[in-house]
Amino acid sequence: MEVSHYLWTHVPILDFTCVSLDFINRFMLLHNKLQKIDTLRFNLRNDYETSNEHLLHASITSAIDRDIQNLHLTAFNTRNFPSQCFFTSKTLVHLTLYACEVVSGAVCLPRLKKLHLFYPEFGDDESLTQLISGCPVIDELILDKPSTDISSCFISSPTIKRVTLNFEGTGNRFNILKMNTPALDYLEIADRLPEHFEFGQLTSLIEANINLFEDVVQEDYFLYSRSLLGFIDRFCNVKCLKLDLSFRNGIIIESILSTWTTKFRNLTKLELSADCRFLLKFLERADNLETLIFSEYGCEEIEYGCEEIEGSIEHSPQQVPKCLLSRLKIIKIASVKGENHEFEIIRYLLWNAKVLETMEIGLGSCIGFEKRFNMHYGITRLPRGSTACEVAFVGAVKGLRNAVINR
């Protein structure tokens, strides 16, 4: 009975959610000083008072002294607590900060592998750069919805393999984005198109998830079109690409797109949300494409792309993209509205995809009964270039990472 009474003083994983700092501090004082702490989670109460920051500092320092490996801190009501104590930990492997300030200063995290920053507040543009430079073996970085405006971002690390930069829902943007990450194999960006970008060598990059928002700032569509295609070119070596260009004001100038010749030789999986011109371009330039997921956006704002797709069925066999003739096995088309050009896209793909095994068609929730019936009736009677092909009609299409596409 007496032994069980003191068992809590030896637990290696501590999770404090919505409890007072006074309680946390007293708990840490009574916790076995010889017991190493594996994981410590702080989720401070809404009534947290900055006058008690010394208690928070004392509790974190106590954990650092006991070789903590994983620290998760949520502090929505404070920004300026003394944080340097965990930025110089010799044992931290995983650091997660929610709504905490990151300031320039000495950083030494020799064992840190994962750095996750949610709603961070940066002292200046150099804060993130200095933080990463103090993590010599970092493997993963997540920067999610920073609460301060960062005009430039420079990420340099020879070891980092996964980077996520999410600015969705914020008014912030990177004017300058530079990355020197030769070991990077996964990159996720949700942001407006940076005005200036440098990625260095991305020879190790396997998967990219790129979501570019509507950009109301840009005015020169010619320069914007060139910049956008140049940005996409940086991911020409990936095997798996998710590209969302479903913004409205960033219309791509046709004269620029028609000269786009970049090859995506390694690409086997593509999830594309864009106008139908981009669909043709990727089919023509991704010879090894095996899986295609397509959501059409913006085609009503241009005429050329839809007419070109509708005429594609007349192409001679020599002009049919190589991936359709020998590689493409899975096609998913989301949010079909029942328009004529959509029918022609499906007709073209069904006939020319010679090794196609599955075509999944997601009929949009707003499509009327008549259009739904006509699309279903017409598609099921279309000739198929592959005898093994099965066509399925679904309400929502699942993406490459099993996220439901039902727009």
Explain this structure.
- With 407 residues, the protein is of the alpha/beta class.
- The protein is built from eleven helices and 22 strands.
- Strands 1-2-3-4-6-8-10-12-14-15-16-17-18-19-20 form a 15-stranded parallel sheet, with helices on one face. Strands 9-11-13 form a three-stranded parallel sheet. Strands 5-7 form a two-stranded parallel ribbon.
- Strand 16, helix 7 and strand 17 form a beta-alpha-beta unit.
Brief digest:
The protein is an alpha/beta fold. The protein has helices at residues 2-5, 21-30, 53-65, 126-133, 221-233, 254-257, 276-285, 304-311, 322-326, 340-352, 369-380; strands at 13-17, 39-43, 70-74, 94-98, 101-102, 114-118, 121-122, 140-144, 152-156, 162-166, 176-180, 186-191, 196-198, 207-212, 240-244, 269-274, 291-296, 330-336, 358-363, 390-394, 397-398, 404-405.
The separation of the N and C termini measures 59 Å
Rg (CA only) = 26 Å
Helix content: 10-25%
Q: What is the average of the pLDDT values?
A: 83
Q: Rough shape? A: elongated
Task: Provide the β-strand percentage band.
Answer: 25-35%
Structural class: alpha/beta
- Biggest β-sheet: count, sense, barrel? 15 strands, parallel
| Helical segment count | 11
- Give the strand line-up of the largest sheet: 1-2-3-4-6-8-10-12-14-15-16-17-18-19-20
Number of strands: 22
Report low-confidence residues grouped into runs of 5 or more. Answer: none
